Amino acid sequence: MKKTLALALALAMVLGLAACGGGDKPQQPSNPGSNAGTSANQPTGTPENIANKDKPLVWFNRQPSNSSTGELDMDALNFNKDTYYVGFDANQGAELQGQMILDYITANIDSIDRNGDGVIGYVLAIGDIGHNDSIARTRGVRKALDTAIEEGGNIKSDAVGINADGSATAVKDGKLTIGGKEYTVRELASQEMKNSAGATWDAATAGNTIGTWVSTFGDQIDVVASNNDGMGMAMFNAWSKENKVPTFGYDANADAVAAIADGYGGTISQHADVQAYLTLRVLRNALDGVDIDTGIGTPDDAGNVLSPDVFKYVDAERSYYALNVAVTADNYNDFLDATKPYAPVANQLDATAHPTKNVWLNIYNSADNFLSATYQPLLQNYDDILNLNVEYIGGDGQTEANITNRLGNPSQYDAFAINMVKTDNSASYTALLNQ
Length: 435
Ligand code: BGC
Known about the structure:
Elements: H1 2-14, E1 57-60, H2 74-77, E2 83-88, H3 90-107, H4 109-112, E3 119-126, H5 132-144, E4 150-151, E5 154-155, E6 161-162, E7 174-178, E8 181-192, H6 203-217, E9 221-226, H7 229-243, E10 247-248, H8 254-259, E11 267-269, H9 272-288, E12 311-314, E13 319-322, E14 325-327, E15 357-363, H10 369-385, E16 388-394, H11 401-404, E17 415-418, H12 426-434
Parallel strand pairs: 1-2, 1-17, 2-13, 3-8, 3-9, 9-10, 15-16, 15-17
Antiparallel strand pairs: 4-5, 6-8, 7-8, 11-14, 12-13
Bound molecules: beta-D-glucopyranose (BGC).
Beta-D-glucopyranose (BGC) is lined by residues 61-62, 127, 133, 201, 228, 230, 250-251, 368, 370-371.
């Protein structure tokens, strides 16, 4: 968007029309980091005289952490004094997702058991077994449906593969009492949806897998659950829509919200409109040298402010977490436009007080439904509002090198926003900034 604007302005100048150009927007540099992009009126210095290791850095969507234990990578989160993580409250969202599915089963108990065998069977698409958000969602579904098994104080989150007879060791058969009657719930199958090239949360894999599950279980499948909407919608379109089997996802992508009208069971909004704002806002604040809470918990000079019911900040984790909301047949009309900026933080910043800065930002996998269809369009709306000139890099979802190769000269940028392929890999990025 900004590039197009810059090109249009450059063209206008060449044609001698510069006098009529300008409008209400600051002129964007066409070459991030060049002197043109960091003019002398910028108060906080040019990228040239600030070491890359001291520039603002935000991790988003994949929290630096150990993918086996979930332990946070505090070195990465404390990389410098202007480092933060932005994500959402995974446990609160996971509870909501489980509750949403349980509520649906309860409300539809008379018709939910399609083959009348007394067992409510569900299948579960897992995104990434080493990703905290995915793990939380698997746990949330199992907890709500009473199929969870605890080990060392945590609910097991492994995939069961096929569990036709209920003998899997990662789950148990659950018991639900609804209307005074007891029902058995079984996780018939679950699998990490990883493609042969290694990309996780893979929608196409989920679309194929539902076919395999249906050929094994047929009308034993009463509910389809998914760690996200990308995989959920692939299964819905491939099978459950036509067979009227309620399917539940996560993310509130626009296509999934719209599909609720056609029988998609529901989804969870992780308030991407708040997360995308926070992702860029923490950088803006650090670049402006103002209190980090500006425009977040405290109104900024344009009136932007978030209320405590949509986010929380955990200082010990250097992390901002957006709060989740369930989206079902009752309220989906309010969520149809998934890429609209959140109104309380949609006020344009003044370009003199908040001059344009250059940000390098990557999306770990350009094929990820949530990140490409929801998160990035939101970021692109907020970058204008916050006067940030963001260069967007889309990864292949498989290797960090595919992304880091495109950060050849970090000195060109004022700040960085990073979405890792694997949550263990923060050093692939910080090493570049430390050079
Ligand atoms: C989203 C997923 C997405 C993943 C990527 C999660 O927060 O819910 O849809 O694939 O992030 O890291």
